[in-house]
TrEMBL record:
Provenance organism: Thiomicrospira cyclica (strain DSM 14477 / JCM 11371 / ALM1)
Keyword Membrane: yes
Signal peptide: none
Name assigned to this protein: Urease accessory protein UreH-like transmembrane domain-containing protein
Domain Urease accessory protein UreH-like transmembrane stretches: 9-220
Membrane-spanning residues: 6-38, 59-83, 89-114, 141-167, 173-197, 209-230
Protein keywords: Membrane, Transmembrane, Transmembrane helix
Pfam families xrefs: DsbD_2 (PF13386)
Length: 231
């Protein structure tokens, strides 16, 4: 898949993943929103800079992880033929996106098992968030978000596979940046209008529409990967 296609796909997956973000990050967003001491508590609109700082920290983590995973893939391509390696990764990423779509739509919950694989690392990192609360400054909010970005998430893992298939440090970082920007509207809305967003995201038709769209994107990615063999 060309870089442009990967960036578009990563952005759309992030945008449609708001339903999943509600379950994974809703508690974190609530904690961040209400972690200010009474002296520093702000109105919904004045919380926006803090919410933006949290989310930029989170996206910064995604970019770092994408760069590292892209660098790893680039080093592996020196050991194996590049095209078959890239095809296999893209097909795997497409299959994972189909599984993720089933998860988002509530049809199959197998992706939850994958998310548990990162629980050990998160347990090591979570104590740092406790040292950063209550949040009083924007740099503190950014650091909190930087740790938050390592929260185990099947949505992130699916896009990381896509970033890995790019086999480039720069492109891996760009793919994760596009994904992070796609998640930004949902999580910003969740932080400022948590009650209304929660009710909307729990609607069955919303979850199933998002899930079906992600599944179609997974099928499209598999098609593009297999079409690379066509001369």
């Amino acid at each position: 898949m060309a870089l442009e296609g990967m960036l578009i796909a990563a952005f759309i997956v992030g945008l449609l993943g708001g339903v999943h973000c509600l379950g994974m990050c809703g508690g974190v967003v609530g904690t961040l929103t209400f972690s200010l001491t009474p002296k520093h508590q702000l109105s919904q609109w004045r919380m926006l800079p803090f919410q933006l700082a949290y989310n930029l920290g989170r996206i910064s983590s995604y970019v770092i992880i994408g760069a590292l995973i892209g660098l790893l893939a680039a080093s592996l391509t020196t050991l194996v033929p590049f095209l078959p390696f890239q095809q296999a990764l893209q097909v795997f990423a497409g299959l994972f996106m189909i599984a993720l779509g089933l998860y988002l739509g509530g049809w199959w919950l197998g992706v939850a098992a994958v998310e548990r694989l990162g629980a050990g690392l998160w347990r090591r990192l979570q104590p740092f968030t406790q040292k950063l609360t209550p949040v009083r400054t924007l740099p503190q909010a950014w650091l909190y978000g930087l740790v938050w970005g390592w929260l185990p998430c099947g949505l992130v893992y699916s896009v990381l596979i896509m970033a890995f298939s790019a086999a480039s440090m720069t492109q891996g970082a760009l793919v994760m940046l596009a994904f992070g920007l796609g998640t930004l509207p949902n999580l910003m809305l969740m932080g400022v209008f948590a009650f209304y967003f929660t009710r909307w995201a729990r609607l069955t038709w919303v979850k199933r529409s998002a899930g079906a769209t992600v599944m179609l994107m997974g099928l499209w990615q598999i098609y593009l990967a297999l079409s690379l063999t066509v001369v």
